[in-house]
Design goal:
84 residues, mainly alpha
Length: 84
Amino acid sequence: MVKKIFWVGIGIGIGALAVRKLGEVRNAASTEGLNRAVARIVDGLADTADAFREGMTGREVELRAALGLSDAGQDTAHAPTHRR
């Protein structure tokens, strides 16, 4: 008798988890769920691109300083380059 109650309890627990997971999958597959997923991906990509740009700008400043090309007070991004 105790074994039967144990297995019924296990079955109810597994059934409850299955219903809960199916509800989550159904919500994720809805239009709103897909919109949220795409928005998270786009936000992550935008954050990555911003971090990349900041690192790139910082490295450019370091390289210009190391080469002696940084001019105080001038916009070095639009400065003309002199080639021979």
